[in-house]
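A protein record in our archive is deliberately plain, so that people and models can read it alike. The record that follows is passed on verbatim for readers who wish to inspect the format.
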Amino acid sequence: MTKDKILEAAIHQYSLHNYHGATMQKIAKEVGIKPASIYFFYKNKEALFVAAFQKLLENHFERMQTILEEVREKPILDIFATLMKGTVEYHKNNMNETNAYISLITSPPAEIKKFLHEHMNKFDAWMIDSLHHLIKRDHPEKSDEETINLTRQFILLLDGIFWEINLYDDEELSEQIEQALHILDILLGGNNNE
C-alpha cells in the first residue's frame, strides 16, 4: 500500500538526513511517486513525520508487549533478561528504524517533541505498571515504592543497553547485558558476591 511505503520511506530518509534533510521530494522519489501525491495522505511534512514516528514507536511498543506476554509466568529476573535481549534483537533487526529512533531522541524536531514526550511517558507508565505487579508476585516483601523504583532502575539500564547497540559487538553487548542483570539481581536482594 502506498501509504505504508510513504511511512517507510519517511523513516528511511529521516535515518539518513534527519528531519530537515528528509524532504518530501526525497521521500516521493524513494516510493516512486510525485511529491504532490504525499499530500493526498498527509496534509504536511509534520503530519507525515508524526505518523511515521507513531508507527515506529508503536511497532517497538507492541514488540515489547509481546515479549512480556511470552515470559509473564517466568521469574522476574528472566523477564528482565528477555526484555533486554528482545530489545537488542529488535533494534539490530530493524537498523533503519533504530537509526531514525536514535536521531529522533538525540535531536527531536520541535514539531515532534511533544508527541515524543507523550509516547515515552506512555511507554514508561506501561513498563512500571506491568513490571511492578510481576516484581510483587516474586518479591511480595517489597513495598510498592521499592517495586516502582526497581522498575525505573530497570528502564534506566534498558536505556543504557539500547545506546550500546551501535557501540559494541555481539559478544561485548552480551557481557553488558549480563552486568546489567547482575545489578538487577543485587537490587532484588540476590547474591552480590559474584
